[in-house]
């Protein structure tokens, strides 16, 4: 499977985000999802077969990390997508906080 098709699946994009800056074991990755370990393992296999993650085995544990070089131009796209989502989330949090403060201010004036 090519890289674009591999990252088209939302869970695989989330796995890449998780292992973007840190190496994580398969178990640590699976803990973050509401699907079976087997399902996460299949996603990891697709990412590995596409060359998008590297695998390091230590005993029985398998550790994964994003291979940014293999991602090529997709790396910049994914980073900008994640940054945009974080910016949106921050904006929503700030708006909710401002609305809460506004509601408290109105309550104090009564």
UniProtKB/TrEMBL annotation:
Q: Which UniProt keywords apply?
A: DNA-binding, Transcription, Transcription regulation
S-adenosyl-L-methionine as UniProt keyword: no
Q: Which InterPro entries match?
A: ArsR-like_HTH (IPR011991), HTH_ArsR_DNA-bd_dom (IPR001845), HTH_MetalResp_TranReg (IPR051081), WH-like_DNA-bd_sf (IPR036388), WH_DNA-bd_sf (IPR036390)
Question: Domain HTH arsR-type: where?
Answer: 1-86
Mind listing the GO molecular function terms for this protein?
A: DNA binding; DNA-binding transcription factor activity
Q: Which SUPFAM superfamilies match?
A: Winged helix' DNA-binding domain
Note the NCBIfam families from the entry: HTH_metalloreg
Which PANTHER family does this UniProt record tie to the protein? TRANSCRIPTIONAL REGULATOR, ARSR FAMILY, TRANSCRIPTIONAL REPRESSOR SDPR
Give the protein name, as stated in the record. HTH arsR-type domain-containing protein
């Amino acid at each position: 499977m090519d890289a674009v098709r591999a990252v088209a699946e939302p869970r695989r994009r989330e796995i890449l985000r998780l292992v973007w800056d840190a190496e994580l074991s398969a178990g640590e990755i699976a803990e973050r999802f509401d699907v079976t370990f087997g399902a996460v393992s299949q996603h990891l296999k697709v990412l590995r077969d596409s060359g998008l993650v590297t695998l390091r085995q230590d005993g029985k544990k398998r550790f994964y990390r994003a291979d940014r070089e293999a991602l090529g131009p997709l790396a910049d796209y994914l980073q900008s997508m994640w940054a945009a989502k974080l910016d949106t989330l921050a904006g929503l949090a700030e708006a909710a906080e401002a609305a809460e403060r506004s509601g408290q201010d109105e309550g104090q004036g009564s």
